[in-house]
Amino acid sequence: MARLEKVSVEDLRQILAEVDEADAAKRIMAAITYKEIDDLTQTDAAELYGFSSSWASKWFTRLERLADEPFEEVVYDKPREGRPSELSDKEHDQFVEALHDSPGEVRYDAPAWSVPLARHYLSEEFGVEYCERHVRRLISEAGLSWKTARPEFYKSDERAQEAWQEGFKKKRDNLDDEYTILTIDQTRQVLSTLIYAWFPEGERPSLPVTGAWDSIKLLGAVSDSRETFFLPCAENFNSDTTIRLLDALQTEFGKKICVILDNASYFTANAVQEFVEDTPIELCYLPRGSPELNPAEECWRQLDQELGNRLFDTLDELRDAALCALNRITVPDVFTYLCP
Q1: pLDDT exceeding 70 applies to what percent of the chain?
Q2: Which of 141, 161, 295, 326 is the S-S candidate for 332 at Cβ 3.0 to 4.6 Å?
Q3: Where is the Winged helix-turn helix domain (predicted)?
Q4: What is the reported pTM?
């Protein structure tokens, strides 16, 4: 009798979510029960759902085909009516060609192909319904592999940066002496981060890390007098946290502040614009893709060096270490960045 070694419980549950017949669902449940309960025979699993031992022998052997065939061909007693069961050779070639192009070429607003998107394309274009596991196999056979793309950040044009710097110099000259110039930015720190370090040649070093995604979030500011201000955030960055930061900066540096910041959505939000409307706060947005103009980035670089290659057990421990490290950083001169 087939042992179902090539078919996982996850595969079976995915297929169970796709079937639309009660009898087919019962057959899949029998297989899931067999896979999940130790020492349960296939005959016992079949009998739990009212099937015979002879049925079990045929059914579990049939299920082995799931490793190579669309589930519709296996779990149903007859082909589904009203839709094709599989791609024709011509349709398969068209699908492979589409996968090697950007999804935008077939009118999908996505930067790259995913299994759900490819599955949707097959359904919309050819009327063929495959489970995600089978679509994943088709994508792999088409010569694609699961990998992380290199980030390609938007890079501001040098002329745009120069124009911004000239404009900022004029704006600064028009501000009265009571204004404090501040640059702000944001960062996220996780419990463990690996960075480059020096190790003896010929050794293969290892460092303790955690796979947890827990993190602390910080908003920070650097003033024109080389003072700093850092605000931990419990929640994700949004317009409310930006407003709280601006309010805190006024308390710390005075009502008249000129704030230089990037174009993150939580900085440019309408709520932020409305907040500053009736205040003496001046907001100056850097050109897109210009982190090198923001001295607050240097604070985060030094923080990464302090916390990198260390494992923290709790967020409180990470937060305390981060705030202590920020008290020791060499504060950059904002005008070296803004007005070189």
Answers
A1: 91
A2: 295
A3: 111-166
A4: 0.55
Residue 292: strand, helix, or coil: helix
Q: Which residue has the higher pLDDT, 66 or 328?
A: 328
Burial class (CB in 10 A: 0-12, 13-18, 19+), 269: middle
State which amino acid sits at residue 10: E
The pLDDT score that the predictor gives to residue 212 is 63
Instruction: Please write the tens of the pLDDT for every residue from 281-327.
Output: 999 999 988 899 999 999 999 999 999 888 888 989 999 999 999 99
Distances (CA, A) of 114 to 27, 135, 139, 195: 30, 10, 9, 30
Contacts of 230 (CB under 8 A, 6+ apart): 218, 219, 220, 221, 323, 326
Q: Specify whether the CB–CB gap between 225 and 256 falls below 8 A.
A: no
In this predicted structure, what is the pLDDT of residue 336?
93
The pLDDT value given to residue 213: 66
In 3D, which of 327, 322, 320 has the Cα closest to residue 305? 322
The beta-strand segments (E) located in the chain are 180-190, 215-223, 228-233, 257-261, 282-285
Give the lowest-confidence range in 47-51, 153-157, 250-254.
153-157
* Domains of the chain listed by start with CATH number: 9-75 (no CATH), 89-141 (no CATH), 158-338 (3.30.420.10)
Give me the sheet containing 257-261, strands edge to edge.
Answer: 228-233, 215-223, 180-190, 257-261, 282-285
> Which of 96, 93, 116 shows the shortest CA–CA distance to 18?
116
Four-residue CA torsion sign, 260, 262, 266, 269 = positive
CA distances in angstroms from 100 to 112, 113, 144, 191, 269, listed in the order given: 10, 9, 8, 38, 37
User: Which DSSP state fits 204?
Assistant: -
pLDDT value, residue 53: 75
**SS3 label, residue 128:** coil
